[in-house]
Design goal:
single chain, alpha+beta, 2 domains, five-stranded antiparallel β-sheet, 60% helix
Length: 339
């Protein structure tokens, strides 16, 4: 079996697995029963945002390693550095957007110069300057040396970003809190699986591009079309107008919903008690777990549970950046040159 065929098979399997886990995470992914602010359903963003963020760090680590090897060995690894930096910048932008979108619901504001947000922004800007800096140097040999040194030095911002929520007072969960979540229950197992698949897929596509092996053009096209079609099917009718937040729920002894009070003051009673769309239906204290969720009433006949807009946005951003990474890997078959 040729190296190109083997690579195509590995990437195909990872793309299929990524799609399956991504869809499962937004449809069935576990989330907290109660949260301090916003709808608990928005916490399904963790299965998208965290893998993207950690893959960003991995890509910049790859660029720094390639830069360090260039400095030590005197060989040119510019294609590796360029590829890892280019993808890292895209992933960092996706990290900022998905994190801010989630924060708009769970923190009450999309951007507040939180230490974590600020550190990721600094990281993004530092690596964004890589290509303008490199192109500003006319001498080819000096250009490669400076680019390698810059990619290596910029990595100093990665541990600052990674540890910022631990070093400074931050609304963002600490790395320990995320690790504890990853070690507990089915939600943690799903998060670990998502992180592993996204990281492996991203690394495979980056190396395919850097080495010039390339993958068939049909892979990113099929992935994008499948992801978009499934996403539109999943989120159709669950995001949009008519949404309101549940502030109180009247439940019977079996946890079925007799009436809900919405944030706009409306109280909607149901002739026949409804089964709660959230499980468990009530907390240990007997409070309905539907409180704080976004719903759309159906003329007193039922409720449609709604996603916060950050979740479909993060879903489609993930599809976009993986498709872009795969498209770059396709372009790798043309070989040579810089990214």
């Amino acid at each position: 079996m040729s190296q190109r065929v083997a690579l195509a098979l590995v990437v195909s399997a990872l793309l299929a697995l990524d799609t399956a886990l991504l869809v499962y995470s937004v449809v069935r992914g576990p989330f907290p029963v109660t949260v301090p602010l916003g709808t608990p359903l928005a916490y399904r963003n963790i299965y998208i945002h965290v893998p993207i963020a950690l893959s960003t760090y991995m890509l910049f680590a790859g660029a720094a390693l390639a830069g360090l090897l260039s400095i030590i060995r005197g060989r040119v690894y510019s294609r590796y550095i360029d590829t890892f930096v280019a993808l890292g910048v895209v992933y960092a932008a996706a990290t900022l957007v998905t994190g801010s979108a989630w924060a708009s619901e769970s923190w009450g504001v999309a951007w507040n110069w939180d230490p974590k947000q600020t550190a990721v922004l600094m990281l993004f800007l530092a690596y964004l300057a890589y290509f303008p800096l490199k192109r500003s140097i006319a001498d080819p040999e000096r250009r490669e040396r400076v680019a390698a040194a810059y990619a290596t030095a910029a990595f100093a911002l990665v541990p600052v970003s990674y540890l910022s929520s631990r070093i400074f007072q931050s609304l963002h969960p600490t790395t320990e809190a995320i690790a504890q979540y990853a070690e507990s229950g089915p939600g943690g197992a799903l998060l670990v699986a998502r992180i592993a698949v996204v990281a492996l897929l991203t690394l495979s596509l980056a190396l395919a591009r850097a080495r010039g092996h390339g993958i068939p053009w049909a892979l990113p096209a099929l992935y994008a079309l499948t992801g978009l079609a499934i996403g539109l099917g999943v989120f159709a009718g669950t995001v949009g107008t008519g949404a309101d937040r549940v502030v109180d729920v009247d439940v019977d002894d079996e946890g079925r919903i007799r009436a809900v009070t919405l944030a706009d003051g409306r109280r909607i009673e149901f002739e026949r008690p409804l089964e709660s769309p959230i499980r468990p239906a009530v907390t240990a204290e007997g409070v309905s777990t539907l409180v704080s969720h976004l719903v759309r009433p159906l003329d007193g006949e039922g409720l449609v549970l709604l996603y916060h807009w950050s979740t479909p946005l993060s879903y489609f951003i993930h599809i976009t950046i993986i498709t872009l990474a795969a498209a770059l890997a396709v372009a790798g078959t043309r070989g040579g040159g810089e990214v």
